[in-house]
Amino acid sequence: MSKLTISDQRLKPIADKVLAEERLTVQDGIALYRSPDLLAVGWLANHVREKRHANVTYFNVNRHINPTNVCVAHCKLCAFGRDPSAPGAYTFALEEIYQRAEQGVREGATEFHIVGGLHPDLSFDYFLELIRGLKQRFGSVHLKAFTMVEVGYFARIAKLSVRETLLKMKEAGVDSLPGGGAEIFHPRVRKIICDHKVSGQMWLSIARQAHEIGLRSNATMLYGHVETEEERVDHLVKLRELQDQTHGFVTFIPLAFHPDNTSLSYIPKPTGYADLRNIAIARLLLDNFDHIKAYWIMLTPSIAQIALRFGANDLDGTVVEEKIYHDAGAKTSEFTPRAELERLIRAAGRVPVERDTLYRPVDRSKLPAAPPAPRADLVSLTLNV
Question: pTM, whole model, 2 decimals?
């Protein structure tokens, strides 16, 4: 590892803290965002990353499943959600979802990542049946399903408490929760970009209750829209505080805002410079998170590779058929094969390790055999509800 050179002397006391493994403050975080010395910030993040994970970079073989894009929220940040009668609106029948899941298993998926819209006409039972059906058919695959925003919506339409809702999800077969919908916790920002979603305080409460019943989750932050540097730091510190209390977060994923086809399309896209800074600062502030992910779908594979030297130790997975960010203008592929992820990691000078959702190394020789290919006469079904 190269020697640390600091051109911005305001970083010197922060560097001393990092090297001494002392916790950074809110003011430290703001200083990191405002420093022009990105290489020094990246060096410090890489120091922490290599101390924790040496040269290893994780990836997984997963399949994204978005059951519906019909959504009542109408968030300004979103290009994915549709009104029920809008062009492009869809809701999959359960059998169609099972077919897509089966394809994922044939491709070696160890995880289904399941998120969707807040549909006005689908009951909570539809989603419970979806999970039960997946668990019955593909019992060895980890079901990472439903954001805190969806959990809050399910609780409301089912007239249940959040805890009761989470317990029903767990009983049906949900293994963990993704981290989406966090956006920026500050109420000023949420009022502008996602005023119909659960509040930041409620997102954190739902995550806390999920962790209390044994469901682990991821956490995210959407940056590059109307938020300030102070609001980003506030968001990260709130996650750190909850992690101190529950230890339930598995990984943190900084998400770059994609403005195309949204009501905020006038906002320029975050630069690669901003992407690397947000990953590095997350690694430095979130000292109680084991993993920081460089989500190649949003960053591009090239920036994700560089991020492996700026604090990230995970590239996410093969994904397959990603809709949410591609509707918002992402130009990356919707699928990267396992071999290509390994190549990208090696080309970045790191050692690839395939993991499951909870970061246990995957031994492909011990996985169940994939199901046979479907018959040619199987017909895909879609519900228009």
Answer: 0.90
